[in-house]
Every structure is written in structure tokens, then in C-alpha cells.
Amino acid sequence: MVKIIDRMPATIAKRFQSLYVWSDERSKLNDLFEKEVRELSDAFEKRKQPIMEKRDKIIYAEHTEFDDACISFDKRMTTLETTVAGIVKTDVEKAADAEEEKAHVPTNVDHLKAKHGVPDYWARALKNHAMLQSIITEKDQPILEHLTKLHCAQTKMPTPQLTVTMTFSPNQFFTNETISFVAIADADTNQTVEI
Question: What is the pTM of this model?
Fold first, then answer.
């Protein structure tokens, strides 16, 4: 672009030189924005870590005292129930809610009564994930029953990528305790380009 501008008549070149300078300033702001978004995202990921550790301790039965969290849950439920009670719905919305309620099947947790933690947490989380439901098949079920831990690590530079590590109990499907894969995304579109 600079060479093209240099070949223009001087009076016209000044217009394009000015456009080039302002375009460059905008690019610098975009770069700064991206840098600060990455830093903010990284800071929030660090803030999430203690919460994820608490979750994992419950899943793996390392934490068995729930009083504080249950008190907080009860307070939040009261607030939510008050908020929901104030929502005015049309007859059509009420009918749709009633149909949804009829179709609702409560989650059966009887299998957890004699166990500690939530040993099938990850298998159920994957099977119930909206994006994964279409790719997880019946053949995957026996393998997922051995999934004991799932860990994701995200990096954004130089290329966005997600490393997923799954840990399994001993099983007849494979000998490795862990299986990992890396999903690499296009930096501009954030679409997965390679696994």
C-alpha cells in the first residue's frame, strides 16, 4: 500500500497517507483491545480455579461437608422463586410450561446412595451436553462409565487451542489411564481447524 501511495500525485497521496495513518491507529487499538481481552480472560480463569477445585473435591468425595453451600443455595432459591413468581406469562406460555413439566423426567440419583461423591459426573455431563449429544453414541456408553476426570486447559497465544485430558478407571477398552487431544482454532473465526 505504501508503494502505491508513493506513486500517486502529491495532492491525492496526502489523502491516502492520512487514511493509512488512521487505519494504522485503529489497528493498534484493535491489537490493544485483543491483548487486554486476553489478559482479562486469563485473570477470570485464575479466579475460577478455586471454584473448580471445590467442585472437583465434591465429585471425587474429598469434600463431604456441605452446610455452607446448602445455606447459600437455600437463600438463592428463595430469591429465584420470588423473581419467577413475579413473571407474568401468557396463556400460551403457561400451556407450554405445563407440557414441558409433563414431559420432564426427574434425574434418577438412586445409584449414588451407596457411593460418595458423584463418580459418574463427567460421563453424565458429556452425555447431556447440548453440543455433544449428537456425537456421543450408545457405543460410547461403556467407555464413558470409566471416565473419572476431565480437565481442559486453554491457551490463546500464539494460536487458540484447547487441550482436553480425560482420565479413566482401568477398563477393557484401552490401557492408557489418560487420553488427551488438542483442538486448535482459527484465530480470526475461533472455529476448530484441527484436532
Answer: 0.68
